Target: Beta-galactosidase
Amino acid sequence: MSVPLNPAPGDYLSTQAATPAVPTSAVAAPAGQEPAAPALSYAGRTLFRNGRQHQIIAGAIHYFRVHPEQWQDRIDRLVALGVNTLDTYVAWNFHQPEQGVAPDFTGWRDLARFITMAGDAGLDVIVRPGPYICAEWDNGGFPAWAISGRDMALRSSDPRFTAVVERWFDALLPVIAPLQAANGGPVVAVQVENEYGSYGDDQEYLRWNRAALRARGITEMLFTADGGTDYFLDGGALPDTWAAATLGSRGDESDAVWERRRPGEPFFTVEFWNGWFDHWGEDHHTRSSTEAAAEAAKILDVGGSICLYMAHGGTNFGLASGANHDGALQPTVTSYDSDAPIAEDGALTAKFHAMREVFLAAQGREPEPVPAALLEPAAVLPEAAVALEAGMGLLDFVRAVERVRSVKPLSFENLGLDRGLVHYSATAVLPRGDGTIKLRGLHDRAYVWVDGTFVGVLTDATGADGLTVQGTGAPAALEILVENQGRINYGPLFGQGKGILDGVLVNQRYVFHWEQRAVNLELPLERLLAQDTGAGTGAGTGAGTATGAGASGFFHGEFHVDRPADTHLALPGFGKGMVWVNGFLLGRYWEIGPQHSLYVPAPLLREGPNALTVLELEHGGEGAQLLAAAQLGSTHATHVEDLG
Model:
């Protein structure tokens, strides 16, 4: 099917899923015909493809991080890198964000079309359906509704958990199964779970996951994936399923572990971390092209197979970026460039050429020129300033949302909200003189007002310490706006809820009787702006600025485009918030960096006027800038070279 040039407002991560549909490109096996033998097999630590000795040389591209009109371009660039295989995760919450609505496999979510395009380009495909994918993606790929507020052991053989996953697999695997090599398609391998040895030791669950794949028609090679040491193998590998590794260095040492622990199995690094992702407030990660290519060559030189994670990272559009937790929440930035060989905007980097040389040599292929069309930089819009005018103030906006009453504060999950904001309000009696407002179980970031006056910001790390306020002993209006900055995608806190999970204290006394307003920022933009006449100033009771300078709330602008082309959007002077282009939720921005521009792919733009909308949570600036190149942070501050 054709994909519209500009998705409808909110289409990317809308909770209003399209009518469930069959994939547009599926290869059906002839009725009554026995499937062919799996394409991949191994013996004596040697991998074979259809009986011939083979090395997988792959690169990861996630269809959900690339605009569908750019799928072909990015696949073409992957082919030029010299690989023979494309690898992709499948993000459940991308296909089924809303409970009770069937999974959607159309348009941007047409997984079968993406796989088929890779096959048509001459590539094999590896599919990693999870259901847990990590991937620095919100909630590790799980819809919040599927696992939140339920008494279940996540990623285990708990039947309450497996029953939920079974229903997802019932919808997903019929999309993948017809595209297997045995049926004439490009899919040659499917992963069982994902890096399970980093999370649990329930071998019964891993066997269940493997059986669930087989029972739904997956006949090609199955494999697990875990870190390259004994510890991770102990928890995540199965004795009778190919075990792959995930690592960033010392692949030759991990190969020795595999030779000892997995005799007869070829070594396969299904994730070779040739770059790394970024958290807000930390450095931008880079890795030397020469060093990364040398480490990749070590794996290939011992006869191993390899997949670059990532070959092309793409973008965490919308609110899809996840978070880590190491003492405090570490939300992931909007860009998923990952210092990959193919940059976020499709540019071929120095790492592309270094890796390509290694890959061609490993296959005994003569060096050949990269197609000239791929070497040409993508067209970009002329640099320009875009004036922005303030609209409705932040508090005025969130106060207009329908309210839900409760005695104790309700979480995002209680309110049926996956991502976005929740506005809490109550009447609190503040003590005479100094008092402290404490938020117990805060996830993630809270803006606090008393009687309409902004008093400060609390985070998951500081919520229990609280904010000092002055009281008179009289009742005061307490308002708290909590932002979900991304659900945790890795580690023991995976599946953690959002909002105020315990309660609000004034000194040691709980505040009861709350009103909550769930602000779903993934709704179509016109619905979010229904209360905004554009005549407001963004000041007054709706301002609530965190720094005392500028205004918080909506800002609107417009820029003219003669011919759509890529651009990079910067918001100098703005603090923290979200931005839409032509009604499409582009992603989050935050002045603390490292990322200071957002990639705007050409398919999101149109000839003539283009609308720019900003929701600023802290302090607004005067305008936006369209830049010719990305500003992802210092390219020399951090090097990721020891990722074993």
User: Anything to note?
Assistant: The chain has three domains: 43-369, 384-391+531-627, 401-519. Residues 43-369 form a domain with the TIM Barrel fold (CATH 3.20.20.80). The longest strand covers residues 433-443. The two ends are 42 Å apart (CA to CA).
